[in-house]
Amino acid sequence: MKREDDFAKRREHIAQLSDQELYDRFWDLTTQVVTPLLELGRNNTTPSVERSVLLRMGVSSLDTQPIVEGCMDRGLMGKGAGHVVYKFSQAKGVSIKEASEMLAQGQGWDEVTALFKGGK
Fold first, then answer.
1. What letter does residue 17 receive in the DSSP assignment?
2. Could you tell me if residue 119 is left (phi over 0), alpha (psi between -120 and 50 degrees) or otherwise beta?
3. With CB atoms 3.0 to 4.6 Å apart as the test, which of 22, 33, 64, 111 could cross-link to 54 if both were Cys?
4. Contact indicator for 17, 25 with CB cutoff of 8 Å
5. What angle in degrees, to the nearest 10, is found between the helix axes of 61-73 and 47-56?
6. Helix axes 109-117, 81-92, angle to 10 degrees
7. How many CA atoms lie within 13 A of 16 on its CB side?
């Protein structure tokens, strides 16, 4: 089966565009495609995904559950559990491992909540 060559017909609506206009159109269409994907990623996560992220950051598997639950209890899941641990470690000047252990033991949650709710 041979495919009919319809390139000329398919490009009629963009044939008159300059290189800059084509460039701008490409990025406009790309933005339209990617924006919903980014929104899905920002707004839809699961405890399983967040635990997986923490594991890849080197957080102990025993510590991932209490951290994710702490994020859910405080409305921080949209920020990402990994981001929570990272930002806390930066604020405290400690390693990711130390920060994750502190959060898993229930320490520092008020500070973490303030970091994110305060817009810092």
1. -
2. left
3. 64
4. yes
5. 130
6. 100
7. 2
